[in-house]
């Protein structure tokens, strides 16, 4: 995942209302609530409680995005990743983050978190098998398109900085389903910044001291795991 310097993010910023949609984006605006696969992973209060750094685990894995007309975004992710060499070492990650997004004139999207995002990582073969930490990094989508699916209606395709696709997202609502658009937990006591493979994570004193029992065990959902492309999730577990 590409991490951009703050000075780069401030250059050439545009507002959502200033974007002129071309033929690749004119089915519907990007504003609204979107979810992949079985559509069980949805942003908003039904997924995360930032004040408690807790999650409500969906029935299946996947990813959800919301975009507001005034430039806010929110992301919910839930994933299990297998290890071919160690089948018992399945790594689970669940992520919540929000902040501001810019639709650029070149067709890209820059998403900049406000600093209160967090994730739970469950790695049974790691030294610390289950922990919660801050999760805040700038994400660049090189391009995006919205098509009309014959069965499910508007379908959003996001392409990461290297062109890799995110799982297709289906529109659940033309209105964004979001938690309040403000900083939702105290992250003032930042003490550590970890950088690996383009992922920047800043931990707080409280999250570093969490014991394994503080993070509930994630249960793998029954049935097919929805397709989801998340860069550097596994790298995060291996760094710590």
TrEMBL record:
Transmembrane segments: none annotated. The keyword Amino-acid biosynthesis does not apply. Keywords: Endoplasmic reticulum, Membrane, Proteasome, Signal, Transmembrane, Transmembrane helix. GO terms for biological process: 'de novo' protein folding. This is Protein ROT1. InterPro entries: Rot1. GO terms for molecular function: unfolded protein binding. Its main location: endoplasmic reticulum. The lineage of its organism: Eukaryota, Fungi, Dikarya, Basidiomycota, Agaricomycotina. It is found in: Endoplasmic reticulum membrane.
């Amino acid at each position: 995942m590409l991490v951009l310097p703050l000075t780069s993010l401030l250059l050439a910023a545009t507002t959502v209302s200033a974007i002129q949609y071309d033929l690749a984006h004119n089915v519907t605006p990007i504003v609204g609530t979107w979810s992949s696969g079985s559509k069980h992973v949805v942003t908003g209060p039904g997924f995360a409680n930032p004040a408690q750094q807790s999650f409500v685990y969906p029935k299946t894995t996947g990813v959800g995005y919301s975009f507001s007309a005034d430039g806010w975004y929110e992301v919910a992710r839930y994933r299990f990743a297998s290890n071919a060499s160690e089948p018992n070492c399945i790594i689970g990650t669940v992520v919540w983050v929000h902040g501001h997004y810019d639709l650029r004139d070149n067709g890209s999207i820059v998403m900049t978190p406000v600093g209160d995002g967090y994730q739970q990582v469950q790695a049974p073969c790691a030294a610390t098998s289950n922990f919660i930490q801050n999760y805040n990094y700038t994400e660049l989508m090189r391009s995006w398109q919205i098509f009309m699916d014959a069965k499910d209606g508007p379908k959003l395709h996001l392409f990461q900085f290297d062109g890799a696709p995110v799982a297709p997202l289906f529109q659940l609502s033309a209105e964004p389903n979001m938690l309040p658009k403000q900083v939702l937990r105290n992250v003032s006591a930042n003490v550590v910044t970890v950088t690996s493979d383009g992922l920047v994570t800043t931990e707080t004193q409280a999250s570093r001291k969490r014991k394994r029992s503080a993070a509930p065990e994630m249960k793998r959902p029954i049935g097919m795991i929805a397709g989801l492309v998340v860069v550097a999730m596994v790298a995060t577990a291996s760094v710590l």
